[in-house]
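Lab notes, practical 5.
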Amino acid sequence: DNFASIVAGVEEGRREYDNIARFTRYLLSSNVGELVAIVGGLLLGLPLILIPVQILWINLVTDGLTALALGLEPAERDVMQRRPRDPDESILTRNAYLIILILGVWLGLLTIYAFSGYYETDLDRARTMAFTGLIIFELYNVLNFRSFRFPLYRIGIFSNPALILAILGSLALQAVVVYVPVFNAFLGTAPLALADWGFLALLGLPVLLAGEAYKAIAIRVQKERAPGI
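Output from the prediction step:
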């Protein structure tokens, strides 16, 4: 019986729907990346790029932490100015499928590249490069899905503290499995040099920059079509 509570309920419902769409699309793009890396590597005649326990670690730890944190993303500033969505519209639209495919293939190809330079001399190091690289690439990628329309400078890098903690936690846990001997044996990893981490960080950075550039261009086009937005 209070109109303000109805408005607040609609706003929260829209936020929850957006967050379901965010982590669903993020997880699918990550899974496509893993699939492309494994199948693509086999088609190229490479040894198995990721062993099953590494895939399980990525899905349960890295993807799990970041996906849950993505579900805590605050509502976008214009959430109540948007038109009501079609109730029959799927979370996975045609455009969403395209973005998932593009990002997933990109992540997979980067992982193959990170692996291919080392497997002939040190297979464990090559797998560790691919394993760690895919995690770093996915951590860049999760930032793309914080908003489908606004770049990070518009929504605020630290506006979702849980996601920042999830990213830092994922990196810390990955450092543990790379450098602690018991995890080396269990996950088939090998210690990496600091330069290897820097190489992987630079290799994956364009994944985030491309997403930011796309959103910035989309906003400019929207403003040109509808001044005052």
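Observations recorded by the TA: The longest helix spans residues 3-43. The mean pLDDT is 90.
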